Records
---
Amino acid sequence: MSSPDSVVFLESFYEPMAANLARTRLEAAGIPCFLSNENLVSIMPLYSPITGGVRLHVRQSDAEAALEILHDEAVPRATGPDIASFAADAPDPVTPRCPRCGSSDVAYGPATRNTYGFWSGLLSVLLRFPVRGKRFHCFHCGNEFK
């Protein structure tokens, strides 16, 4: 059994800015926390899904209160012309939640799982470039959904 002062993983974020906003909200509420993988994801954003994104850690005794603060109000997402191109064509402007784990750390973009149909598979072979469908991807549990 772990002690209440042990550090636990709370949430992961695709973008360092969203992770810093969540960290700031927790610190403003008096909950000490820290981020890991922030520099790696800032320098190499394509490694975010591989490393599990920017990870937010808190003490075990503060975990429940921290989750209530974070899930009480969604962490704002970046918007505007400088946002990644995959998010610009998201079908729903409201940040969706993962149906499996309920996390709001979800992005819309090219699917990572095999989503080839007959025509997209044929086009991918002819173009020698994968033509994939787009889906929502949860960076907390890895679930993909439409």
---
Amino acid sequence: MACSINGKAIAAFATFCTVLVYLAVGAAIFQAIEESHENEQRKSYEDELHKLLNGVDEDFHDELKAPCHMVEVLQATPNITNSWTFAPTVIFCLTVVTTIGYGYMYPVTDEGRGFCIFFALIGIPLFMACLAVYAQHTANFIRWVCKKLRKCLGGKDEENEKVQQIVTVLFCIIVILTFSAYLSYKENWSYFDAIYFTFISFTTIGFGDLYPSSTDTLFYFLFVFFIILGLISLGTVIEAQTSNFSTFLNFISSTCECLCGKCVTVENDAVNDAEELQNDKKDITV
């Protein structure tokens, strides 16, 4: 039993490490492809700005640079305001394999778009497999905790599943509220906006109407950690709710069949079959 548990733990850890390595390698390749294009765009812009200000008195250079930079932001060619450094590119790769896709950052070169297709084809099923493994481990851990609580506090076995679902939901809510609090503090967002962004991210909807602007290393690390943890916790909740809805739909289906008289017909057929069998036995006896 111990070997089995250790084997599963090692397999889960190896899967997680594989995902991290895949994100790092993908980020390095995207950076190599897109950063050079970004630098060319910026150099082209700087050259155009230099030509524009070449015939202007130097005293007015600073006054003219501000509106020129504003034009750069408003009328920029795609990707000129993004930064394909390593850490943001890792986040971009994470949004690809999780299918969140905020849309704030995207490849614009043919090479980058081609690699993005290849990266997504392998990365999405790889991450989904990792997510399924850790969601199962999370569910097993919560089940174990609930059993311990039931033994300590007392309770019926049939109540264990309900308690497990409640604990799962509470765990997911705690993750959402914790990450939202951090975002609200870090980005100066309202707490509701932070909760909205967190929920949209954890459900992989990813509208992209809100996106954090922080760039420090700790933020990137915590962002990756909470996104993965949130997907696992919310995935566990959705799986449990899907099971509940399936049970509810089966109940409705069976109820409708009873109302339509199918259950009565089946019972009558069973009674008739039983009577025929008894009559056959009597005939054989006679």
